[in-house]
């Protein structure tokens, strides 16, 4: 049986707002009415990968930041945005790999819960390949990937009409001080970490993308087809 195809769109370091804009364009493509010509090679959707160009705090469907908190975070020099993903407040910034799969789960034969578990499995596998065999996923509300009591990868997705958006944020060489200004994902008593912190060497986003993509193809049983990110 032929594997479904997913477009790979690598965006390098870009503003978070540009990632959201591109995500919305792919959502509109996949949500097109039946009979509308589908974009070539997008059987199951797209995998958008980038590194944020600047610091941004985001909140999800489970709760937003108060006006006072928003003003305080903006005073630090960060952007603050409300998104449609699941979860509470988190941070995105340089040194972090953002992966937003915009997928029609029906074409991949997946349910939403299976999709979230698959994202976790990809991040766990990446950690293992980097020499961190202790990485693991935990049950809700501890969604994401953990190394002990510290989260290395946050996951928050949105799904409507079987089409997903948003995804995961993996700390590679992220400045973890930014997380000190919020309660990440609303989890009191837990911490955050990065691949660089755990491995005691500088780990770049570019370094981890190839093994992550291999893990994605294996986990989702799909082909990745490169696309010019300007489309």
UniProtKB/TrEMBL annotation:
<dbReference type="InterPro" id="IPR045864">
    <property type="entry name" value="aa-tRNA-synth_II/BPL/LPL"/>
</dbReference>
<dbReference type="InterPro" id="IPR000544">
    <property type="entry name" value="Octanoyltransferase"/>
</dbReference>
<dbReference type="InterPro" id="IPR004143">
    <property type="entry name" value="BPL_LPL_catalytic"/>
</dbReference>
<feature type="domain" description="BPL/LPL catalytic">
    <location>
        <begin position="41"/>
        <end position="224"/>
    </location>
</feature>
<dbReference type="GO" id="GO:0033819">
    <property type="term" value="F:lipoyl(octanoyl) transferase activity"/>
</dbReference>
<feature type="site" description="Lowers pKa of active site Cys">
    <location>
        <position position="151"/>
    </location>
</feature>
<comment type="pathway">
    <text>Protein modification; protein lipoylation via endogenous pathway; protein N(6)-(lipoyl)lysine from octanoyl-[acyl-carrier-protein]: step 1/2.</text>
</comment>
<dbReference type="GO" id="GO:0009249">
    <property type="term" value="P:protein lipoylation"/>
</dbReference>
<feature type="binding site">
    <location>
        <begin position="85"/>
        <end position="92"/>
    </location>
    <ligand>
        <name>substrate</name>
    </ligand>
</feature>
<dbReference type="GO" id="GO:2000376">
    <property type="term" value="P:positive regulation of oxygen metabolic process"/>
</dbReference>
<comment type="similarity">
    <text>Belongs to the LipB family.</text>
</comment>
<protein>
    <recommendedName>
        <fullName>Octanoyl-[acyl-carrier-protein]:protein N-octanoyltransferase LIPT2, mitochondrial</fullName>
        <ecNumber>2.3.1.181</ecNumber>
    </recommendedName>
</protein>
<dbReference type="Pfam" id="PF21948">
    <property type="entry name" value="LplA-B_cat"/>
</dbReference>
<feature type="binding site">
    <location>
        <begin position="167"/>
        <end position="169"/>
    </location>
    <ligand>
        <name>substrate</name>
    </ligand>
</feature>
<dbReference type="GO" id="GO:0005739">
    <property type="term" value="C:mitochondrion"/>
</dbReference>
<keyword id="KW-0808">Transferase</keyword>
<feature type="binding site">
    <location>
        <begin position="154"/>
        <end position="156"/>
    </location>
    <ligand>
        <name>substrate</name>
    </ligand>
</feature>
<keyword id="KW-0012">Acyltransferase</keyword>
<feature type="active site" description="Acyl-thioester intermediate">
    <location>
        <position position="185"/>
    </location>
</feature>
